[in-house]
Specification:
Blueprint lengths: L31 E4 L1 H7 L7 H14 L3 E5 L5 H12 L8 E7 L2 H10 L5 E9 L2 H8 L3 H18 L7 E9 L6 H15 L7 E7 L6 H14 L6 E7 L6 H10 L4 E4 L13 H10 L11 H12 L20 H17 L34 H12 L8 H15 L5 H12 L6 E10 L6 E9 L2 E9 L2 H11 L5 E11 L6 E10 L4 E8 L2 H18 L2
Parallel strand pairs: 1-2, 1-8, 2-3, 3-4, 4-5, 5-6, 6-7, 7-8
Antiparallel strand pairs: 9-10, 10-11, 12-13, 13-14
Helix pairs in contact: 2-11, 4-6, 6-7, 7-8, 8-9, 12-13, 13-14, 14-15
Length: 559
C-alpha cells in the first residue's frame, strides 16, 4: 500500500457545473421504484434462487408495492427464460405490474428475450452496453463511435421486434453501463443517439438508466453528473431518468438521494442492498429515509421484520445487526444517556399521544411500530447502560414506576451486576437484581406481624408490631398519623430509629383480582447517606411498611 503521494489512484475529475441547482432542492415525492432483486440480486448470490424461491420473491415484491420488477436475463439461461414463462403462463403478473427484462446489445440475445415475453400485457426491455473509457479500452478495444453504434443497432433491433408480439405493450430502457465512469458528454451523445433511433414521445417515454456501476467519486459528483445530463438532454420531456447506484464506496443511498435532487425520476435497487461486490442500492433504506421526512414512499414496509425473514431465507444472506431500519440492534440503546433520553421521550409521548402527533423521541428517527417493530429492543442493559434504561425496563416489562430520585442508584446496582458478568442482562435478570436488592428485604430486620388501631377523634393510628432484629424477636408499639409514621415511632421507642423519612410513593401493578401495590420509601440516615427500599404486596399499607423495612435494611447492610 502506497504512502505519502499516491500515484496508483487518481481522484475522479469534477463536473463543470458552477450553477448546480440540486443542493437547494428538496425531495417532495417518491420516485418510480424498480426492483432488480430477481436479476442483480440473484446473480450476486452464492446459491442462486430456485424457481420456487423466485416466485416467492416476486410475490413479496408485488405485495410491497413495486410496479416495475426486473425479473431476469431470459437469454442468459433456460432457468431465467422458464421462470419468466411461468410468470406469464400461470398468470401471476398483476395488471398494474410491469415485468422488466435485461439484455445485452447483441442480436441473438435480443431475439431470445422477445421470445420470453410472448403473452405478457406489458414489459420493459432493458438494453445495455458498456461505455466507460476503461471498458472501451480493456474489455472491448473499440472506439467511441463503435461503442455508440452497438447501442444504436441494438435499439434498432428491439424496435423492429416489437411488432412480433403485438399483444404486448413494450417500453424501452437503455443503460450506458458504467455511466459513473463515462465522460458525461459522451454518455449524453450515446443516449441521444439511442433516443433518436427509438423516437419516444411524452406519452411513451424512454427510460434512460444511468448506472453508477462502480462508485468512483463522492455522492455530490454523482449528483453533478445527473444534473448535467438532465439539463443537457435535448428532449428531456420524453425520458425518465433512472438511477442505479452501487455501493463500492459505501455511499449508494446518499448518491441516490442526491441524484433525485439532481432531477432523476426513477430508482433501481434491491431489498437490503443485495448485489455484486458491496451491493446495489438498498431501496428499503431510501424509501424509509423519505418516510422520515414526511414523504409517502409508496412502498408498504409496515411488516419489515417479515420482509427481512423472507429475504434472509430465500437469499441465504444475513441482514447486519446495524443495518438501517432492519437490523436487530438499530433501535437498541446501551448507552446510559441515550437510554435516559429515549425513556423521557417515550414517557412524554405516552402522555400526549394523539392521532397524527409528530414523532419526537430522542435518538429514534422513526417510530419502530410504523415498520412492524416493537419497543422491546429499544433499551437493553449492559455495563454501559444508565439509570434511564434500567428504569425503562422495569416500568415497561414489570410495571414498576420508580421515583426519579431512585433511578441513579438502581441503575448503578444493575450495571455493577452486568459489569461483573461482562455481558448484557435480559429484562428478567434486571428485574431479579432489583427484587433482590430492594424489594421486601428481611435482614437484619424482619416484619413478622402488625396490627392497626384507629382513633377517630384524634385521627391518629396506633400499631402493634412484631419484628425480628438480627434473629431476635421483639414487640413494639407506636403512634402516628398513619401506619408508616406510627411504625417509625415504634422503632424510635426501642432505639432502632436512626433515620429520617424523606419520601414515600406508591402505585398499583396489574389489574383486577391480581392487582398489587408497589411502594417506594427514601430515608436519610444519621450518617447523612440516603437509602431506598421497595415493598410489594396486595395490601397497600403492608407494601408501604415493607418498603420502609427494606430501606432500613439496605442502610444497615452497608455498615
Amino acid at each position: 500500500m502506497q504512502k505519502g503521494k499516491i500515484t496508483k489512484y487518481t481522484p475522479f475529475p469534477q463536473i463543470d457545473l458552477p450553477d448546480r441547482q440540486w443542493p437547494s432542492r428538496t425531495i417532495t415525492h417518491a420516485p418510480i421504484w424498480a426492483s432488480v432483486d430477481l436479476r442483480d440480486g440473484n446473480q450476486a448470490l452464492a446459491t442462486p434462487m430456485t424457481v420456487n424461491e423466485k416466485l416467492e420473491m416476486f410475490e413479496l415484491l408485488v405485495k410491497i408495492g413495486f410496479k416495475e420488477i426486473e425479473v431476469g436475463f431470459p437469454s442468459a439461461s433456460d432457468t431465467e427464460f422458464n421462470f419468466i414463462r411461468r410468470l406469464v403462463d400461470e398468470k401471476r403478473i398483476p395488471a398494474d405490474v410491469t415485468l422488466q427484462v435485461l439484455v445485452q446489445a447483441r442480436e441473438h440475445l435480443i431475439r431470445r428475450t422477445f421470445e420470453s415475453l410472448e403473452g405478457t400485457s406489458k414489459a420493459i426491455v432493458h438494453l445495455y452496453n458498456s461505455t466507460s473509457p476503461v471498458q472501451r479500452r480493456v474489455t472491448f478495444n473499440k472506439t467511441k463511435d463503435e461503442i455508440k453504434a452497438i447501442a444504436v443497432e441494438g435499439t434498432r433491433l428491439v424496435k423492429s421486434l416489437v411488432e412480433t408480439i403485438p399483444g404486448t405493450q413494450i417500453r424501452f430502457q437503455y443503460s450506458p453501463e458504467s455511466f459513473s465512469d463515462t465522460e458525461v458528454d459522451y454518455a449524453l451523445e450515446v443516449c441521444e443517439a439511442v433516443m433518436a433511433e427509438w423516437s419516444p414521445s411524452e406519452d411513451d417515454k424512454i427510460i434512460l438508466n444511468l448506472p453508477a456501476t462502480v462508485e468512483v467519486a463522492t455522492p455530490n459528483v454523482h449528483a453533478d453528473q445527473i444534473e448535467w445530463f438532465c439539463r443537457n438532454l435535448k428532449e428531456r420531456n420524453k425520458a425518465y431518468i433512472s438511477l442505479h447506484t452501487h455501493n463500492d464506496r459505501g455511499t449508494g443511498a446518499a448518491a441516490t438521494e442526491l441524484g433525485l435532487l439532481a432531477g432523476a425520476d426513477r430508482v433501481e435497487g434491491t431489498l437490503f442492498g443485495n448485489g455484486e461486490r458491496t451491493g446495489n442500492l438498498d431501496i428499503v433504506t431510501v424509501a424509509l429515509n423519505l418516510y422520515t421526512q414526511g414523504v409517502d414512499s409508496a412502498l408498504d414496509l409496515s411488516e419489515l421484520e417479515r420482509i427481512r425473514r423472507i429475504y434472509e431465507r430465500i437469499t441465504r444472506m444475513t441482514v447486519h445487526d446495524r443495518h438501517p431500519y432492519a437490523g436487530d440492534l438499530v433501535f437498541t440503546a446501551f448507552s446510559g444517556s441515550h437510554q435516559d433520553a429515549i425513556k423521557k421521550g417515550m414517557d412524554l409521548r405516552a402522555k400526549e399521544d394523539t392521532e397524527g402527533a409528530r414523532w419526537e423521541v430522542p435518538y429514534l428517527a422513526i417510530d419502530p411500530e410504523d415498520i412492524g417493530r416493537d419497543y422491546e429492543a429499544i433499551i437493553r442493559i449492559n455495563s454501559q447502560s444508565g439509570k434511564g434504561g434500567v428504569a425503562y425496563i422495569l416500568e415497561r416489562d414489570f410495571g414498576l414506576d420508580l421515583p426519579k430520585t431512585m433511578h441513579p442508584e438502581v441503575g448503578m446496582v444493575v450495571n455493577e451486576t452486568a459489569d461483573k458478568g461482562s455481558r448484557e442482562l435480559s429484562p428478567d435478570e434486571v428485574h431479579e437484581v432489583f427484587m433482590q436488592a430492594y424489594v421486601n428485604l428481611e435482614a437484619p430486620m424482619e416484619l413478622l406481624s402488625i396490627e392497626r388501631e384507629d382513633f377517630s377523634q384524634s385521627g391518629e393510628v396506633k400499631v402493634d408490631a412484631e419484628i425480628r432484629m438480627n434473629g431476635k424477636p421483639n414487640r413494639l408499639s407506636g403512634m402516628g398519623n398513619g401506619p408508616i409514621s406510627a411504625f417509625v415511632d415504634a422503632l424510635e421507642q426501642v432505639g432502632y430509629k436512626d433515620f429520617q423519612l424523606l419520601d414515600y410513593r406508591q402505585h398499583s401493578i396489574g389489574g383486577g383480582s391480581k392487582t398489587e401495590a408497589a411502594a417506594y420509601i427514601q430515608i436519610k440516615n444519621d450518617d447523612g447517606s440516603v437509602s431506598f427500599g421497595c415493598g410489594i404486596n396486595a395490601n397497600i399499607e403492608l407494601a408501604g411498611l415493607r418498603a420502609l423495612v427494606s430501606a432500613f435494611n439496605r442502610a444497615h447492610s452497608k455498615v
